[in-house]
Write a structure and sequence with these properties.
Rossmann fold, GFO_IDH_MocA-like_dom, seven-stranded mixed beta sheet, Dihydrodipicolinate Reductase, domain 2
Length: 334
């Protein structure tokens, strides 16, 4: 397949290397508004480089991967849908709720498939828990706890355009809670705090976030996030049911130390970043996109799914600003 990629920054360069490693990709075409950056990435993997997004869309692509900074997602996705190019777009599809709603309507009115990049759906552990919940193995689900704990904060320049910790970080938790439970969020109560670098406060953001969600089934969901988990990168989801419990991320890479005598679990080494933690999931995700681009399957994560995760993040922002629970009915939808 001939695949285009726009944006070869941190996640884009990672995707370029992943695409290059997959047997399904015969030709890879790159674009980045920083020309040297695209050239550098291309030289390492033998890819083509074009000088504009329009040239990329006109390059005879079987599929397109959008991995630009967040402000570039929506404009390029609009162009791709208009051109009829089947597209994989990193989350979020847009920086604002209104534009995400507009893109949802646009995508659903088109016959051009769009696959949104929530890679946890392609992690084996998350898929196993989703199957267990759907099959009733755990009974009724009364509690879910989901954590996204970064070992180190991103560069200060990233935060002003990130959308905040709920939209940038916990949006993965929001999506995977919907995926695992098969339910929708009914209410949200969120808060946050800052004890780290001043640039979080300066951007109106938090370095640590927490939220309590209630699903439409009555399940209670606890969400946590931080940019300062010194022990290591920890992404974990615990699902508790009336018949049993399961946990994603409970292995020797767990970034915790036991306080109990004689316990040598976990043995390590820990993960240090999301790319290390989810490499197999990223590969599986892009492989699934090739099936979408080939017309062999429908999108496994639609723009509508992205909208619902964004709405939960938006509800969290409203809750922390207003200091009260927020019903999802208060948040606009398409």
């Amino acid at each position: 397949m001939r695949i285009g990629l726009t944006g070869v920054g941190r996640i884009g360069a990672f995707h370029a290397a992943t695409l290059h490693s997959l047997a399904s990709v015969d030709e890879l075409v790159l674009y980045d508004f920083v020309g040297d950056q695209a050239r550098k990435a291309a030289d390492g993997i033998g890819a083509e480089v074009v000088d504009s997004e329009d040239a990329l869309l006109a390059a005879g692509l079987d599929g397109l991967v959008i991995a630009t900074a967040t402000p570039g997602h929506a404009p390029m996705l609009r162009k791709a849908i208009a051109a009829g190019v089947r597209t994989f777009c990193e989350k979020p599809v847009a920086a604002t709720l209104d534009e995400t709603i507009d893109l949802t309507r646009l995508a659903e009115a088109s016959d051009t498939p769009v696959h949104v990049g929530f890679q946890r759906r392609f992690d084996h552990g998350y898929q196993r828990v989703q199957q267990a919940v759907a099959a009733g193995e755990l009974g009724f689900i009364h509690t879910i706890r989901s954590h996204t704990l970064d070992q180190n904060p991103p560069h200060a320049s990233y935060i002003p355009t990130s959308g905040g910790i709920f939209r940038d970080c916990n949006i993965h938790d929001f999506d995977v809670v919907r995926f695992v439970s098969g339910r929708e969020v009914a209410t949200v109560y969120a808060t946050g705090g800052n004890q780290g670098a001043e640039f979080f406060k300066e951007s109106g953001d938090y370095d640590t976030g927490g939220a309590m969600l209630t699903l439409d089934s009555g399940t209670v969901v606890q969400i946590s996030s931080t940019r300062y988990n010194g022990q290591g990168h920890d992404v974990r989801t615990e699902v508790f049911g009336s018949k049993g419990s399961m946990c994603v991320g409970l292995d020797d890479t767990l970034a915790m130390v036991s306080a109990e005598d004689g316990v040598d679990f976990p043995k390590g080494p820990v993960h240090t970043n999301f790319m290390d933690r989810f490499l197999p999931a990223y590969q599986a995700e892009l492989t699934a996109f090739f099936d979408v681009a080939s017309g062999l399957r429908e999108s496994p994560c639609t723009v509508r799914d992205a909208l619902e995760a964004f709405r939960i993040a938006e509800a969290c922002e409203l809750s922390r600003m207003r200091g009260r629970p927020v019903s999802m009915d208060e948040v606009a939808t398409a």
